[in-house]
Amino acid sequence: MNTNKIEPILEIAKSQPIISLKAIKEELGEDYSYFEIHIAIAYYKSQH
Fold first, then answer.
1. Among 18, 39, 17, CA closest to 9
2. Which of 19, 20, 36, 40 could form a disulfide with 9 if both were Cys (CB 3.0 to 4.6 A apart)?
3. What does pTM read for this prediction?
4. pLDDT category, 48, cuts 50, 70, 90?
5. What would the 3-class secondary structure string for the chain be?
6. pLDDT digits over 8-18, tens only?
């Protein structure tokens, strides 16, 4: 996974009251996969 993709994913995830993979994917577009979004959120949760 390209590490440059993590920050945009987390910025959107942090702005949502409930983390929704679909909502994040819709906002980021086709350049991001559901897998990348899931991995970035799992990484963030493991750090906090």
1. 39
2. 40
3. 0.87
4. confident
5. CCHHHHHHHHHHHHCCCCCCHHHHHHHHCCCCCHHHHHHHHHHHHHHC
6. 999 999 999 99
